Amino acid sequence: MTTDVTIIGAGLGGLTLARVLHLNGIPVTVHEAEPSPAARAQGGMLDIHEDTGQPALAAAGLTEEFRGLVLAGRQAVRVLDTDGTVLFDKADDGTGGRPEVQRGELRQILLDSLPAGTVRWGRKAAGVRALGGGRHEVTFADGSTLVTGLLVGADGAWSRVRPLLSDATPEYTGKSVVETYLFDAPVRHPAAAAAVGGGSMMALAPGREIFAHRERDDTLHAYLGLAEPLDWFDAVDFTDPAAAAARIAKEFDGWAPQLTELITGADSAPVLRPLYALPAGHRWERVPGVTLLGDAAHLLPPNGEGANLAMLDGAELGGALAAHPGDPEAALTAYEAALFPRSARAATLGGPDAHGTDPDSGTIHDLVAAFTGDE
């Protein structure tokens, strides 16, 4: 006999878990706050790692579908100085182990792999409470409730499920990014398109950085990193897109115009994304009937690992539940025994934030290795 599983959150991790459970005949429902799959944009490109995300998709039986989403050439990496000088330029020769896909498209193949009705939309969790005996009650924003014997918090940074297990809350990392898009870039923004190249581009200075990707349909997606306290950003009027773009661009005075065009030439309103993280090595004592995965369990500063780790969490938890039919506590114990050290290792891995905002704090090779996995 198996216990029905209730997942809060239909992100990549929660959906990977749902798919693996479905393949193993374990009843599961996913409750998602968004009203529909198309309620909001799902973010930009993801590089799917050969040691985490790809095995997770294989466990979900979706390798072929994933391969159909891969954007050729996008594993190219370029590092520029702030004056536009190319410091490093690595082409995509097809041998890299981190193919790039659009996050929204990846989420859609996971959704399409689940039976109709598995995901319940417009179900925003407002609170949870323990009932004893490993059972928990979830209260939703519309006032409805459910009781479940196995609850999984896959509900991200501000998880409603996490307080059942841990008092930890995300803390501001001291850095935020401002996100912009430039559409039809080779025609409308040729200088910026040439600077970014065919894949990813990064340019760094103390306290300031620009990262950009060439996405599907020649869209440039840029992230402008600024190491400033939250009240600094409070003084920027993001309700006035032109004024906000001008204020952010001022922080990159003296940078090459093909780089600052990623701010001043944006075809979308700039969006502020403050960066938060849970304490490195976050863990909890085993509590019957509940666990966490993805950002709910191990929210990290951006280092290229988060989405891949969430999918691997989902696949590993699904596999553990399948391997312990009728004994969910044994499954959760086994899952968390692997989760905690894996999360702690991920917190030490590369990525721009692992090297700080000073380009002299890591070599160009280190920066490229963080994005490509090449050591």
From TrEMBL:
Pfam families: FAD_binding_3. One of its GO terms (biological process) is response to antibiotic. Its EC number is 1.14.13.-. SUPFAM superfamilies: FAD/NAD(P)-binding domain (SSF51905). It is found in: Cytoplasm. Gene3D superfamilies: FAD/NAD(P)-binding domain (3.50.50.60). FAD binds at D47, R103, D295. It is an enzyme of class 1 (oxidoreductase). NADPH binds at R40. It comes from the Bacteria. GO terms for molecular function: FAD binding; monooxygenase activity. Keywords: Cytoplasm, FAD, Flavoprotein, Monooxygenase, NADP, Nucleotide-binding, Oxidoreductase. GO terms for cellular component: cytoplasm. Its main location: cytoplasm. The keyword Mitochondrion does not apply. It catalyses: a tetracycline + NADPH + O2 + H(+) = an 11a-hydroxytetracycline + NADP(+) + H2O. Its cofactor is FAD. Residues 3-188, 289-341 form the FAD-binding domain. InterPro entries: FAD-bd (IPR002938), FAD/NAD-bd_sf (IPR036188), TetX_monooxygenase (IPR043683). Belongs to the aromatic-ring hydroxylase family. TetX subfamily. Consists of an N-terminal FAD-binding domain with a Rossman fold and a C-terminal substrate-binding domain. HAMAP family: TetX_monooxygenase (MF_00845). Monomer. PANTHER family: FAD DEPENDENT OXIDOREDUCTASE DOMAIN-CONTAINING PROTEIN (PTHR46972:SF1), MONOOXYGENASE ASQM-RELATED (PTHR46972). An FAD-requiring monooxygenase active on some tetracycline antibiotic derivatives, which leads to their inactivation. Hydroxylates carbon 11a of tetracycline and some analogs. This is Flavin-dependent monooxygenase. It comes from Streptomyces griseoviridis.
